[in-house]
Write a structure and sequence with these properties.
Helix 1 packs antiparallel against helix 2, helix 1 packs parallel to helix 3 and helix 3 packs across helix 6. Among the domains are: about 80 residues, no CATH class; about 140 residues, no CATH class. Helix 14 links the parallel strand 4 and strand 5. It contains 16 helices and five strands. Strands 1, 2, 3, 4 and 5 form a five-stranded mixed sheet that branches. The protein has about 325 residues and is an alpha+beta fold. It is globular, with a radius of gyration of 21 Å. About 55% of the residues lie in helices and about 10% in strands.
Length: about 325
Protein backbone atom coordinates (compact mmCIF):
# COMPACT_ATOMS: atom_id res chain seq x y z
CA UNK A 1 0.00 0.00 0.00
CA UNK A 2 1.34 3.39 -1.00
CA UNK A 3 2.46 5.70 1.80
CA UNK A 4 0.47 8.44 0.06
CA UNK A 5 -2.83 6.63 0.66
CA UNK A 6 -4.60 9.02 3.10
CA UNK A 7 -5.98 8.10 6.50
CA UNK A 8 -9.47 9.18 5.41
CA UNK A 9 -9.44 6.64 2.58
CA UNK A 10 -8.10 3.96 4.91
CA UNK A 11 -11.02 4.55 7.27
CA UNK A 12 -13.43 4.35 4.31
CA UNK A 13 -11.99 0.98 3.26
CA UNK A 14 -12.38 -0.30 6.83
CA UNK A 15 -16.03 0.79 6.77
CA UNK A 16 -16.69 -0.95 3.45
CA UNK A 17 -15.06 -4.18 4.62
CA UNK A 18 -17.11 -4.05 7.81
CA UNK A 19 -20.38 -3.59 5.91
CA UNK A 20 -19.50 -6.57 3.71
CA UNK A 21 -18.53 -8.60 6.80
CA UNK A 22 -15.37 -9.52 4.89
CA UNK A 23 -12.75 -11.24 7.08
CA UNK A 24 -9.42 -11.26 5.29
CA UNK A 25 -6.55 -11.29 7.80
CA UNK A 26 -3.94 -10.23 5.25
CA UNK A 27 -5.94 -7.24 4.01
CA UNK A 28 -7.00 -6.17 7.50
CA UNK A 29 -3.42 -6.46 8.73
CA UNK A 30 -2.18 -4.33 5.84
CA UNK A 31 -4.83 -1.68 6.49
CA UNK A 32 -4.09 -1.67 10.22
CA UNK A 33 -0.37 -1.19 9.72
CA UNK A 34 -1.04 1.65 7.28
CA UNK A 35 -3.57 3.29 9.63
CA UNK A 36 -1.09 3.19 12.52
CA UNK A 37 1.61 4.73 10.35
CA UNK A 38 -0.66 7.52 9.07
CA UNK A 39 -2.08 8.34 12.52
CA UNK A 40 1.39 8.71 13.96
CA UNK A 41 2.14 11.24 11.25
CA UNK A 42 -1.01 13.33 11.73
CA UNK A 43 -0.42 16.67 13.42
CA UNK A 44 -4.08 17.55 13.97
CA UNK A 45 -5.46 15.47 16.87
CA UNK A 46 -9.08 16.04 15.87
CA UNK A 47 -8.47 14.46 12.47
CA UNK A 48 -6.72 11.47 14.04
CA UNK A 49 -9.48 10.92 16.62
CA UNK A 50 -12.31 11.19 14.07
CA UNK A 51 -10.83 8.60 11.74
CA UNK A 52 -9.73 6.32 14.57
CA UNK A 53 -13.30 6.27 15.90
CA UNK A 54 -14.53 5.20 12.45
CA UNK A 55 -11.90 2.44 12.27
CA UNK A 56 -12.76 1.38 15.83
CA UNK A 57 -16.42 0.90 14.88
CA UNK A 58 -15.42 -1.35 11.98
CA UNK A 59 -13.10 -3.39 14.20
CA UNK A 60 -15.89 -3.87 16.75
CA UNK A 61 -18.26 -5.09 14.05
CA UNK A 62 -15.66 -7.52 12.70
CA UNK A 63 -14.52 -8.47 16.23
CA UNK A 64 -10.98 -8.05 15.02
CA UNK A 65 -8.42 -5.84 16.79
CA UNK A 66 -4.67 -6.32 16.13
CA UNK A 67 -2.30 -5.27 18.95
CA UNK A 68 -0.65 -2.42 17.05
CA UNK A 69 -3.97 -0.78 16.16
CA UNK A 70 -5.36 -1.39 19.65
CA UNK A 71 -2.31 0.29 21.21
CA UNK A 72 -2.64 3.28 18.87
CA UNK A 73 -6.35 3.78 19.62
CA UNK A 74 -5.74 3.38 23.36
CA UNK A 75 -3.04 6.06 23.20
CA UNK A 76 -5.57 8.51 21.72
CA UNK A 77 -8.59 7.40 23.76
CA UNK A 78 -8.37 10.15 26.38
CA UNK A 79 -8.63 12.69 23.55
CA UNK A 80 -11.93 11.29 22.30
CA UNK A 81 -14.18 13.53 24.49
CA UNK A 82 -12.37 16.61 23.20
CA UNK A 83 -13.10 15.90 19.55
CA UNK A 84 -16.20 13.67 19.33
CA UNK A 85 -19.77 14.76 19.93
CA UNK A 86 -21.59 12.96 22.81
CA UNK A 87 -23.43 10.65 20.41
CA UNK A 88 -20.22 9.42 18.73
CA UNK A 89 -18.39 9.24 22.06
CA UNK A 90 -21.02 6.81 23.36
CA UNK A 91 -20.47 4.61 20.33
CA UNK A 92 -16.70 4.74 20.82
CA UNK A 93 -17.02 3.60 24.45
CA UNK A 94 -19.41 0.82 23.39
CA UNK A 95 -17.01 -0.37 20.72
CA UNK A 96 -14.02 -0.39 23.07
CA UNK A 97 -16.06 -2.39 25.58
CA UNK A 98 -17.18 -4.84 22.90
CA UNK A 99 -13.53 -5.49 22.05
CA UNK A 100 -12.58 -5.96 25.74
CA UNK A 101 -10.06 -3.17 25.26
CA UNK A 102 -10.21 -1.21 28.52
CA UNK A 103 -7.10 -1.40 30.65
CA UNK A 104 -7.39 -0.92 34.41
CA UNK A 105 -6.11 2.65 34.14
CA UNK A 106 -8.61 3.47 31.39
CA UNK A 107 -11.62 2.38 33.42
CA UNK A 108 -11.41 5.53 35.53
CA UNK A 109 -11.14 7.56 32.32
CA UNK A 110 -14.31 5.86 31.07
CA UNK A 111 -16.14 6.68 34.30
CA UNK A 112 -15.22 10.35 33.91
CA UNK A 113 -16.33 10.34 30.27
CA UNK A 114 -19.67 8.81 31.16
CA UNK A 115 -20.17 11.28 34.01
CA UNK A 116 -19.75 14.15 31.54
CA UNK A 117 -22.14 12.49 29.11
CA UNK A 118 -24.78 12.28 31.81
CA UNK A 119 -24.25 15.96 32.65
CA UNK A 120 -25.02 16.77 29.02
CA UNK A 121 -28.34 14.92 29.30
CA UNK A 122 -27.71 12.36 26.58
CA UNK A 123 -30.09 9.91 28.26
CA UNK A 124 -32.89 12.34 27.35
CA UNK A 125 -31.66 13.44 23.92
CA UNK A 126 -30.50 9.97 22.77
CA UNK A 127 -32.18 7.38 25.04
CA UNK A 128 -31.40 4.38 22.82
CA UNK A 129 -27.73 5.34 22.63
CA UNK A 130 -27.64 5.72 26.42
CA UNK A 131 -29.30 2.32 26.79
CA UNK A 132 -26.74 0.68 24.51
CA UNK A 133 -23.95 2.32 26.50
CA UNK A 134 -25.32 0.85 29.71
CA UNK A 135 -25.51 -2.59 28.12
CA UNK A 136 -21.96 -2.31 26.76
CA UNK A 137 -20.55 -1.40 30.16
CA UNK A 138 -22.51 -4.16 31.88
CA UNK A 139 -22.61 -5.09 35.52
CA UNK A 140 -18.87 -5.63 35.85
CA UNK A 141 -15.83 -3.93 37.34
CA UNK A 142 -16.00 -1.27 34.61
CA UNK A 143 -19.65 -0.45 35.25
CA UNK A 144 -20.87 2.91 36.38
CA UNK A 145 -23.65 1.92 38.73
CA UNK A 146 -25.49 5.23 38.57
CA UNK A 147 -25.55 5.09 34.76
CA UNK A 148 -26.96 1.59 34.70
CA UNK A 149 -29.41 2.56 37.42
CA UNK A 150 -30.54 5.53 35.35
CA UNK A 151 -31.72 3.28 32.52
CA UNK A 152 -33.74 1.28 35.05
CA UNK A 153 -35.59 4.32 36.41
CA UNK A 154 -39.30 4.03 35.79
CA UNK A 155 -39.64 7.16 33.62
CA UNK A 156 -36.77 6.03 31.37
CA UNK A 157 -38.21 2.51 31.16
CA UNK A 158 -41.67 3.86 30.29
CA UNK A 159 -40.18 6.00 27.52
CA UNK A 160 -38.34 3.02 26.01
CA UNK A 161 -41.32 0.67 26.25
CA UNK A 162 -43.62 3.26 24.66
CA UNK A 163 -41.38 4.71 21.95
CA UNK A 164 -38.67 2.09 21.31
CA UNK A 165 -40.30 -1.35 21.82
CA UNK A 166 -37.49 -3.12 19.95
CA UNK A 167 -35.14 -2.15 22.80
CA UNK A 168 -37.25 -3.68 25.58
CA UNK A 169 -35.18 -6.89 25.48
CA UNK A 170 -32.10 -4.81 26.36
CA UNK A 171 -33.91 -3.36 29.37
CA UNK A 172 -34.93 -6.83 30.44
CA UNK A 173 -31.35 -8.08 30.18
CA UNK A 174 -30.06 -5.21 32.32
CA UNK A 175 -32.84 -5.70 34.85
CA UNK A 176 -31.99 -9.40 35.04
CA UNK A 177 -28.25 -8.80 35.48
CA UNK A 178 -28.95 -6.17 38.13
CA UNK A 179 -31.01 -8.65 40.13
CA UNK A 180 -27.94 -10.87 40.37
CA UNK A 181 -25.49 -8.04 41.04
CA UNK A 182 -27.48 -6.41 43.84
CA UNK A 183 -29.32 -8.35 46.57
CA UNK A 184 -32.94 -7.25 47.02
CA UNK A 185 -32.78 -5.21 43.80
CA UNK A 186 -36.15 -3.64 43.07
CA UNK A 187 -36.30 -2.94 39.36
CA UNK A 188 -38.86 -1.05 37.27
CA UNK A 189 -42.15 -2.43 36.05
CA UNK A 190 -41.11 -4.51 33.07
CA UNK A 191 -42.93 -7.13 31.05
CA UNK A 192 -40.72 -10.05 32.09
CA UNK A 193 -42.65 -12.63 30.14
CA UNK A 194 -41.31 -13.94 26.84
CA UNK A 195 -41.11 -11.29 24.17
CA UNK A 196 -43.06 -12.51 21.18
CA UNK A 197 -41.01 -12.03 17.99
CA UNK A 198 -43.02 -10.88 15.02
CA UNK A 199 -43.46 -13.47 12.29
CA UNK A 200 -41.89 -11.48 9.49
CA UNK A 201 -39.78 -12.64 6.55
CA UNK A 202 -39.71 -16.19 7.90
CA UNK A 203 -40.45 -17.80 4.54
CA UNK A 204 -37.03 -16.79 3.25
CA UNK A 205 -35.11 -18.24 6.20
CA UNK A 206 -36.25 -21.55 7.69
CA UNK A 207 -33.78 -21.11 10.55
CA UNK A 208 -35.57 -17.95 11.67
CA UNK A 209 -38.80 -19.96 11.77
CA UNK A 210 -37.17 -22.56 14.00
CA UNK A 211 -35.81 -19.97 16.41
CA UNK A 212 -39.23 -18.36 16.66
CA UNK A 213 -40.73 -21.83 17.12
CA UNK A 214 -38.46 -22.50 20.11
CA UNK A 215 -39.20 -19.16 21.73
CA UNK A 216 -42.94 -19.63 21.22
CA UNK A 217 -42.86 -23.11 22.76
CA UNK A 218 -40.93 -21.79 25.74
CA UNK A 219 -43.11 -18.69 26.05
CA UNK A 220 -46.31 -20.74 26.02
CA UNK A 221 -45.14 -23.41 28.45
CA UNK A 222 -43.01 -21.37 30.85
CA UNK A 223 -44.53 -17.88 30.62
CA UNK A 224 -42.59 -15.70 33.09
CA UNK A 225 -39.77 -18.26 33.38
CA UNK A 226 -38.19 -17.44 30.03
CA UNK A 227 -36.67 -14.42 28.35
CA UNK A 228 -36.12 -14.51 24.61
CA UNK A 229 -33.97 -12.84 21.96
CA UNK A 230 -31.47 -11.31 24.41
CA UNK A 231 -28.28 -9.56 23.25
CA UNK A 232 -25.16 -9.63 25.43
CA UNK A 233 -22.88 -6.62 25.78
CA UNK A 234 -20.46 -8.13 23.25
CA UNK A 235 -23.16 -8.50 20.62
CA UNK A 236 -23.91 -12.23 20.98
CA UNK A 237 -27.58 -13.18 20.82
CA UNK A 238 -29.24 -15.68 23.15
CA UNK A 239 -32.35 -17.20 21.58
CA UNK A 240 -33.84 -18.01 24.99
CA UNK A 241 -32.72 -17.66 28.60
CA UNK A 242 -34.09 -19.59 31.59
CA UNK A 243 -33.30 -19.70 35.29
CA UNK A 244 -32.86 -23.18 36.81
CA UNK A 245 -32.65 -24.16 40.47
CA UNK A 246 -30.50 -26.90 41.98
CA UNK A 247 -33.55 -29.18 41.82
CA UNK A 248 -33.25 -28.84 38.02
CA UNK A 249 -36.59 -27.08 37.74
CA UNK A 250 -37.06 -23.91 35.72
CA UNK A 251 -38.12 -21.05 38.01
CA UNK A 252 -39.55 -17.57 37.30
CA UNK A 253 -37.09 -14.70 37.02
CA UNK A 254 -38.89 -13.03 39.89
CA UNK A 255 -37.75 -15.82 42.25
CA UNK A 256 -35.64 -14.75 45.22
CA UNK A 257 -32.34 -16.39 46.09
CA UNK A 258 -28.94 -16.76 44.50
CA UNK A 259 -28.47 -20.51 43.94
CA UNK A 260 -29.75 -20.47 40.38
CA UNK A 261 -28.14 -21.38 37.09
CA UNK A 262 -28.49 -19.13 34.05
CA UNK A 263 -29.08 -21.40 31.05
CA UNK A 264 -28.63 -19.89 27.58
CA UNK A 265 -30.40 -21.67 24.73
CA UNK A 266 -29.38 -21.25 21.12
CA UNK A 267 -30.04 -22.90 17.78
CA UNK A 268 -26.66 -23.63 16.27
CA UNK A 269 -26.06 -22.92 12.62
CA UNK A 270 -23.47 -25.26 11.15
CA UNK A 271 -22.92 -23.75 7.71
CA UNK A 272 -19.32 -22.74 7.09
CA UNK A 273 -19.96 -20.42 4.15
CA UNK A 274 -20.67 -16.76 4.80
CA UNK A 275 -24.03 -16.03 3.20
CA UNK A 276 -26.75 -13.50 3.96
CA UNK A 277 -28.47 -14.54 7.17
CA UNK A 278 -26.02 -17.37 7.85
CA UNK A 279 -23.41 -17.30 10.60
CA UNK A 280 -20.24 -19.39 10.11
CA UNK A 281 -19.22 -22.18 12.46
CA UNK A 282 -16.42 -20.06 13.93
CA UNK A 283 -19.09 -17.66 15.19
CA UNK A 284 -20.77 -20.55 16.99
CA UNK A 285 -17.52 -21.44 18.74
CA UNK A 286 -17.08 -17.78 19.69
CA UNK A 287 -20.63 -17.74 21.09
CA UNK A 288 -19.95 -20.83 23.24
CA UNK A 289 -16.68 -19.41 24.61
CA UNK A 290 -18.31 -16.05 25.34
CA UNK A 291 -21.27 -17.59 27.18
CA UNK A 292 -19.01 -19.86 29.23
CA UNK A 293 -16.88 -16.87 30.21
CA UNK A 294 -20.03 -15.16 31.54
CA UNK A 295 -20.87 -18.20 33.67
CA UNK A 296 -23.87 -19.39 31.66
CA UNK A 297 -24.85 -23.04 31.33
CA UNK A 298 -25.50 -23.84 27.68
CA UNK A 299 -28.09 -25.65 25.63
CA UNK A 300 -27.10 -25.77 21.98
CA UNK A 301 -29.67 -27.22 19.62
CA UNK A 302 -28.82 -28.48 16.12
CA UNK A 303 -31.64 -27.12 14.06
CA UNK A 304 -32.10 -30.38 12.12
CA UNK A 305 -32.81 -32.16 15.44
CA UNK A 306 -35.38 -29.53 16.36
CA UNK A 307 -37.13 -29.85 12.99
CA UNK A 308 -37.44 -33.62 13.42
CA UNK A 309 -39.47 -33.30 16.65
CA UNK A 310 -43.26 -33.70 16.17
CA UNK A 311 -45.52 -31.37 18.12
CA UNK A 312 -45.05 -28.99 21.03
CA UNK A 313 -45.16 -31.68 23.72
CA UNK A 314 -42.17 -33.56 22.31
CA UNK A 315 -40.35 -30.28 21.78
CA UNK A 316 -40.97 -29.27 25.37
CA UNK A 317 -39.72 -32.64 26.63
CA UNK A 318 -36.63 -32.25 24.47
CA UNK A 319 -35.94 -28.78 25.87
CA UNK A 320 -36.48 -29.88 29.47
CA UNK A 321 -34.08 -32.81 28.98
CA UNK A 322 -31.41 -30.55 27.45
CA UNK A 323 -31.80 -27.95 30.22
CA UNK A 324 -31.45 -30.64 32.90
CA UNK A 325 -28.35 -32.06 31.20
CA UNK A 326 -26.76 -28.61 31.01
CA UNK A 327 -26.52 -28.26 34.80
CA UNK A 328 -25.76 -31.91 35.63
Amino acid sequence: MSDDFPLKSTASVFTSISKLNFHDAALLGLLSDHAVMKVNGVQEKKEAVNFLSIILMSCAHLRWFPPNLEKTIQSHFEEFPNHLNPHHLCFAICNMSKLHSFSESEKEVVRNMVAKLEEKGIEKSHPVVWLNLALALGWNDCSVDWVLSSVLKQDFVDNIQKNFPAMVSVLRQLDYEASFAFPNFQGPRLDLGGQKPERTNTKQDSLVTDVIDITHVLDKQMDESVQTRIMTSQGHEIDALVLVGNDKRVVPFSSSGSNFHKVAIKVLKFQDMIQPGVVPTSENRMWVRHMQSLGYKLVVIPYNEWKSLPGNNSKMMYLEKKITESIS
